[in-house]
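Support request, please re-run this one:
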Amino acid sequence: DPIPVVEMAQSHQLVAKAVSSGYIASPEGNRAIFTSKMKPKDLEELDGLAHAPVTFQEFIDKVSDIRVTVVAGEVFAAEILSQECESSRVDWRATDDPHLVHRIHKLPDEIISLCRKLVINLGLNFGAIDLALKSDGSYIFLEINPNGEWVWLEDQLGFPISDRIARWLDKV
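Re-run finished. Output below.
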């Protein structure tokens, strides 16, 4: 329904993101669909939403992106310095910088607890949680993926995620 989207856009800058797969097939091959800011012109072209649903969220002015990976209650947090590169400011995955800086992030105990509770309350043992870190130090929840990617975090930051998954699977 485009009406609530237009109403929300009257008071907030919006972003649009794919509901499921972030890829579409084209004659040139598969293309990624990244989260993008809505433009006024986009709001005039919402008739197809019933056939191609989209998630709309308020745009968050952030300092960086935080990827929290939870495995059987163990929490690994990575900070992605997405605001240092123009191409990654809205969606860090859209970066054109192959060396986009990632670093280990120390989450506050309260946020660690909330991430664990979210995974448990959803009946999961694994969750890849995306947060936005704002300049005032607050965290904004964006989404959780029950099978999100994590290998690049092992490669870049040395997180033992595959080891923790193997240990968890060994107990199942």
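The helical segments are 2-9, 109-121, 151-157, 161-171. The mean pLDDT is 93.
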